[in-house]
Amino acid sequence: MKFSQRLRQGDYLVGTMLTLPAPEIAEMVAKCGFDWLFMDGEHGALSTLDWQRMLQAVAGRSASIIRVAENSEATIKKVLDLGADGIIAPQVNSADEARRIVSYCKYPPQGVRGVGLARAQGYGLDFASYVESANDDVAVIIQAEHIDAIGNIGEIATVEGIDAVFIGPYDLSASMGKMGQIDDAEVVAAIDSVTRACQLNNVALGYFGVDAQSVLPYIEKGYKLICAGVDAGFVTAGAQQIRAQLTP
Ligand code: 3PY
Ligand code: MG
């Protein structure tokens, strides 16, 4: 079943974040059984060709969702043409912006996605079957991660074509003058207002945490799209542990 369908039917989907330009790391992580991989194109070094190699490395194992660096038509089109299962759009603060992002993800007549031949369309071999179902199959996930988004969340959550709203606790706390204080009462209250608006409109909710512990409270609140941990953190934690164990 496609990732977007699983999201819409409310499946519990556990992912982790990839930031390193290494298909081998993507492959290793996918072999660990994650439902999806959050490939981060907003921060860090990942570029178009890195995404393509990573998508190839994990195909058939984990769904690949790419967070775009900017919510532009050109960037979103390129990411989808690589064959990503969906996009994560950062910093979506209004319903108008959410509608614009949805339109970039859908072929006409629902949207304005450009028509190309790339990996997503089997380099042309699968063109007809791909375009027939792409508007349903591509997951559109937008981030609520600014105090302005919190103010507009009632309207944002009603935008047709949004498959999930993903909280960015770090940017949200920063926009409230509380950078990194993700458990601060006001930050949590802001997140709770997103939770209520999305649950009212039957929109799946996502949350990121640096480790499993940080996401548990949100799993309890009904969040289904979970991203825990970061590839670089897995490497440094393992390296630090070995180094510490062998310290005289
Ligand atoms: C944030 O916390 O700002 C994020 O974007 C996490 O994905
Ligand atoms: Mg963010």
Can you walk through the features of this model?
The model has no long low-confidence stretch (mean pLDDT 98). The chain is 46% helix and 17% strand. It contains 12 helices and 8 strands. The chain has 248 residues and is an alpha/beta fold. The longest helix is centred in the last third of the chain and has 16 residues, at 185-200. An 8-stranded parallel barrel has the order 1-2-3-4-5-6-7-8, surrounded by 7 helices. The structure holds 3-hydroxypyruvic acid and magnesium ion. 3-hydroxypyruvic acid is lined by residues 143, 145, 168-171, 208.
Distinctive features:
8-stranded parallel beta barrel; alpha/beta; binds magnesium ion; globular; 248 residues; binds 3-hydroxypyruvic acid; single chain; 12 helices; TIM Barrel
Please describe the topology of this protein.
Elements: H1 3-8, E1 13-18, H2 23-31, E2 36-40, H3 48-58, E3 63-67, H4 73-81, E4 86-89, H5 95-105, H6 127-137, E5 139-144, H7 147-151, H8 153-156, E6 164-167, H9 169-175, H10 185-200, E7 204-209, H11 212-220, E8 225-230, H12 231-245
Magnesium ion (MG) is lined by residues 90, 145, 168, 170-171.
Overview in brief:
This protein is of the alpha/beta class. The protein has a single domain (3-245), classed as Phosphoenolpyruvate-binding domains (TIM Barrel). It has helices at residues 3-8, 23-31, 48-58, 73-81, 95-105, 127-137, 147-151, 153-156, 169-175, 185-200, 212-220, 231-245, and strands at residues 13-18, 36-40, 63-67, 86-89, 139-144, 164-167, 204-209, 225-230.
